[in-house]
Amino acid sequence: MHLVVLLKRVLDPEIPQSAFSLDPQHKEPSALRHPFVLSVFDGNALELALRLRDTRAEVRVTALTLGPRAAEDVLRKALALTVDEAVHIVGDEAGLPAGRKARVLAAAIRRLAPADLVLCGRQAADWEAGQLGGMLAEALGLPCLPFVSGLGLAPGGFEAVQQVESGQAVYRVAGPAVLTVTNDPGNVLRPARIRDVMAARGRELTTIPLADLVPGTEGDEAGVETLDLRLPTPRRRAEILDGGDAAETAARLARRLRELGAV
Amino acid sequence: MTNIATAVWAWGGRIPAAGIELVRSAAALAVETGGELGVLALGIGARVAADTLRAAGADLVLTCEEEALDTAPGEAGLAALLASCDVLRPSLVLLPADSLGRDWAPRLGYRLGAGLVTEVTDWSLEDGRPVFQRLVFGGKAIATMRVAGGVAVATARPGAGRRDEPPRAGRGEVRDLGLAIEAQPNWPRLLRRQAEERQGPGLEEARAIVSGGRGLGGPEGFIPLEQLARTLGGAVGASRAAVDEGWAPPSWQIGQTGKTVAPDLYVAVGISGASQHLVGCSRAKTIVAINRDPEAPIFDYARLGVVGDWREVLPALTAALKEMLAD
Ligand SMILES: Cc1cc2nc3c(=O)[nH]c(=O)nc-3n(C[C@H](O)[C@H](O)[C@H](O)COP(=O)(O)OP(=O)(O)OC[C@H]3O[C@@H](n4cnc5c(N)ncnc54)[C@H](O)[C@@H]3O)c2cc1C
Ligand SMILES: Nc1ncnc2c1ncn2[C@@H]1O[C@H](COP(=O)(O)O)[C@@H](O)[C@H]1O
Fold this sequence. Notes:
The complex is a heterodimer. Chain A has a single domain, classed as Rossmann fold, CATH 3.40.50. Chain A is globular. The termini of chain A are far apart. Chain A has a 9-stranded mixed β-sheet with strand order 11-10-9-12-8-1-6-7-13, with helices on both faces. A two-stranded antiparallel sheet of chain A has the order 2-5. In chain A, strands 3-4 form a two-stranded antiparallel sheet. Chain A has helices at residues 40-55, 72-80, 98-111, 132-140, 194-201, 246-259; strands at residues 2-6, 9-11, 22-23, 28-29, 36-38, 60-67, 85-90, 117-121, 144-154, 157-164, 167-173, 177-181, 206-209, 224-230, 239-240. By secondary structure, chain A is an alpha/beta fold. In chain A, helix 2 (72-80) packs across helix 5 and helix 3 crosses helix 4. Chain A has 6 helices and 15 strands. Chain B folds into 2 domains: 4-176, HUPs (Rossmann fold), CATH 3.40.50.620; 208-326, Rossmann fold. Chain B contains 9 helices and 15 strands. Chain B has a 9-stranded mixed β-sheet with strand order 7-6-5-8-4-1-2-3-9. In chain B, helix 2 (50-55) links the parallel strand 2 (37-42) and strand 3. The model of chain B has no long low-confidence stretch (mean pLDDT 94). At the A-B interface, helix 3, helix 4, strand 9, strand 10 and strand 11 of A face helix 5, strand 5, strand 6, strand 7 and strand 10 of B. Flavin-adenine dinucleotide sits between chains B (138, 213-215, 239-242, 253-258, 270-272, 274, 276-277, 280, 290-293, 296, 309-310) and A (13-14, 40, 125).
């Protein structure tokens, strides 16, 4: 059984607003100033795949990324978490239309051993489009189940737990299929063991130049232009209530809430 | 631009408030473009909702009442959307940014060769074409985006494009889509739903919400939170950190990847104020922060703040409000 997990390297989404800056000319954050990490939901997707492998020895996990040389970081991390194979499509993905990106990743997936499931994050923690999973499913001609938080084996395929507004929905997935993954207490990415981190340094990656995959622009959808990228206007500071002791502070807060018509 | 299409879940003839809101916003846009608004109403009993949809501004209501929508809403809904686009020939498809709309939009966009803009918070028309606003980088930046040509597909967050003036009632013609949908063996098939039990109002309707974060330090921190929420007749929410710790179920999560709420009062307890959390509660009328760190970013965002330990502040606040509300 073969699971492919898509991993993207993104600007650390946890940096606070005060440390975040833009490069207005390129309509991108000023990359040089910020650290990069594995996109959060991709970590959840990787964890689901690793958990399935924990239960069954015949499960194989391949990590796949598309990005510049530096994106190798996320594959090293995946290797340190003992994935069986790591594949790097080397190229600049920032300028690719979303549909073409999906076709590039689909072409790479077709070169691998047939995948029973392809897992990716519900949305990348940078531009947060939440579009690649669905488009990849179309490019591969597969069904798609989004917002999966739990995954298990079931007769004839998999059982997947989906997070919806009202709670959860449990689906039978025959596979092959594309799943997009969302966070849940049960799929927080495990830390790597020191021993495995060391071992990962010497392991081989498979690299594929971007230009080898889907060279033309045939089938490209209408493009999306970013006309402007700007910072939100700063807010005013809160009115801080302090009454000495908790009871007096709380009483003041309650009065202010009534004055504001909030209660 | 001319025609606009949208889709609403109308199982049993009931349309969620967010669906009506989306139809209205789409109708307002159709008025501006001089185009027609077609609404695909999905689910058994959808026809019953036609009058409501007409009042909200639909010119043409296409109904699809196929059984497969129940067990495979993603795949069957996509098939219905594709068929409805053949009928409506829209230049803009507006879908809700909920679990179904987010599922359909990328796949529909791919099939139509359309440009896709997701999680839209507002739009305007420039030269007759829609220009979209959306938050990126966890709410730390705002992007303005446009589809360069051809069809546009967008998902709209709650409140996007809301206009105050009531829309004109639409023509309201009702037609069955006439599509038989047979569930395919490789489609993910719904086995069961596990709705969560919740006492009191849901997060989407609640007038008051008390939310807890990692600062609560454990699941027991949610007990005084629930007491305060009950006193206010409100609901309890959570940050993603609290959900990831397993202290609160995922359906309580508020924020960019959780729910978007708009109560009169939002109390954030032990929540630092990450942009991804704030985008879920920014429509609240009054935000109160309780945090022991005076430098927490939430104090740059809240209207009122208390610097202190929730263990002391929460019980005192519940007591003070009980007393005040009893008067
Ligand atoms: C793509 C993406 C999507 C995301 N989506 C969401 C989302 O939808 N919703 C969401 O919430 N987050 C989301 N996040 C996560 C977000 O970035 C933050 O990590 C998260 O909101 C932090 O939660 P927190 O404020 O509870 O925890 P922390 O940031 O750890 O803050 C805890 C706070 O509690 C305070 N505290 C500690 N002890 C006490 C005490 N005794 N009394 C009072 N205060 C105390 C501390 O001072 C601190 O400010 C997302 C992140 C990414 C990358
Ligand atoms: N360049 C990439 N390389 C690998 N995976 C990616 C890449 N871009 C997006 N993905 C995957 O697709 C998910 C959704 O991305 P997006 O649609 O861009 O928000 C991410 O969480 C990743 O799992």
